[in-house]
Amino acid sequence: MSFRQSCSSLRTLQQARGNRFLNSSSRRNFTVLALESSADDSCAAVLTSDRKILSNVVLKQPPHGNELGIHPYFAIEHHQKNMPTAIARALHEANVSMSDIDGVAFTRGPGMAGCLAVAANAGRGIAAATNKPIVGVHHMQAHALTSLLTESDPPKFPFLTLLVSGGHTLLLLAYSPTKFKILATTVDSAIGQAIDSVARLLKLSWHDEHGNLIGAGAALERLAASSPPPGVSIPEIKPFPVAFPNLMSFSFAGPKGEVNRMLGKLPPDAVEKDEGLRIAIARGFQQAAVAQLEEKVKLALRWCDKR
Asked: What angle do CA 51, 56, 58 make, to 5 degrees?
């Protein structure tokens, strides 16, 4: 399912009840129960068409055994346990009942197929049992429009948005809630995937000193910001190559591959024994990845300025 093919969720909700919610001639406020389970967080929220978030429940999952990252089987199992609790809490915290809900929304993708199915099935079951309209929302479209709900002074259309996550790196120009232009996307790995890979190559723990899961990004950032032990120096390393300079395209396979090549020239246990080297590589990769985001945003702003 492509981003362009999926930018129709609000139109679908319009049609679900003969436009009675969103049509300008008969507009009234409506309340939606929204469900999300695309990765490893089980989420339920209640929000209104006049931009009020009445509740927002996010239930985290414990580490998936010895897995680094998300194990699909464990994630699905925890979603199935957590989703009923998340829904009940969202309704309670919003001080509403299902009779106050006008429609149901769920994340339809992109995401992990089995995980997505949990919110989809829960939403469809609720909608069928209560005779409410239901709409599947594109994950990245929702991210692009989040500022319309969360900002006291929301942006006006058209506006530029940068979306970065484990599976996506996109620069979008939003013209309306349902119309977008993709200005730049990645030709290979998303930035989140590259960060996960580099954290594994550097043999980083994804947990903090208390055993809490913090993830690859936080682990890599902590390492890059740290100082080496006494007596250990940080070596100078060759700057990472710039991916697609002056072009509206992302590529994070290059910086990730550079780390792989650097480590491939060293003994297998070198990265574990030399903390200074680990810090140098973490800093070099992080600087290259963030610099690429900055460059593409500047290019996009220039593109928009010319139009």
From this structure: 150
Residue 45 pairs with which residues in a beta bridge?
Answer: 34, 56
Rounded to 5°, the CA angle 129-132-133 comes to 130
pLDDT tens profile 255-295? 999 999 999 998 888 888 899 999 999 999 999 999 999 99
Distances (CA, A) of 90 to 72, 93, 122, 166, 207: 25, 5, 14, 26, 29
Contacts of 290 (CB under 8 A, 6+ apart): none
Condensed to tens digits (0 to 9), the pLDDT of residues 289-304 reads: 999 999 999 999 999 9
At residue 25, the pLDDT reads 42
Classified by CATH at the fold level, domain 4-154 comes out as Nucleotidyltransferase; domain 5 (3.30.420)
* CATH H superfamily, domain 191-305: ATPase, nucleotide binding domain (3.30.420.40)
Q: What are the residue boundaries of the structural domains of the chain, listed by start?
A: 4-154, 191-305
| Tokens matching residue 262 | 């650097």
Rounded to two decimals, the pTM is 0.79
Is the Cα dihedral 15, 20, 25, 27 positive or negative? Answer: negative
Mean pLDDT of 168-195: 93
Residue 135, H or E segment:
strand 134-138
The single residue listed with the structure tokens 């024994």 is 273
For tokens 């009779």, the residue is 99
Percent of the chain with pLDDT over 70: 89
Contact assessment for residue 122 and residue 106, using Cβ atoms and an 8 Å cutoff: yes
- Can 4-154 and 191-305 be said to share one CATH topology? yes
